[in-house]
Write a structure and sequence with these properties.
Layout (H helix, E strand, L loop, with lengths): L1 H8 L3 H6 L17 E12 L6 E12 L2 E14 L2 E7 L1
Antiparallel strand pairs: 1-2, 2-3, 3-4
């Protein structure tokens, strides 16, 4: 989750697509360079250890857009695909 947040912060759409599960990955991703990501708070997690094949991350991501501060709260599902943790979907 932290690496995906960092990718959003630096507008790295290629990394975001690579770290997205093949069954839910969009064909392309258009990131708005005017969005400035300003902080990430992990609220809670389930699973996600070396012994798990799935897990969740609940987080709050803070950002500013057009001078207005806002946040996104989401509970995301992650699974292993080809041995790597990838984002599956929002719950």
């Amino acid at each position: 989750m932290r690496s995906r947040y960092s990718a959003f912060a630096v507008n790295d759409a290629a990394y975001l697509l690579r770290s997205w599960h093949s069954s839910t990955r969009p064909a392309h991703l258009d990131l708005d360079p005017r969005t400035r990501w300003t902080g990430l708070e992990i609220v809670g997690t389930t699973g996600g250890t070396a012994f798990n094949t799935d897990g969740t991350v609940e987080f709050i991501a803070r950002y500013t857009e057009s001078g207005h501060a806002d946040s996104l709260r989401e509970n995301s599902s992650f699974v292993r695909e080809d041995g790597n943790w990838v984002y599956l979907s929002a719950l």
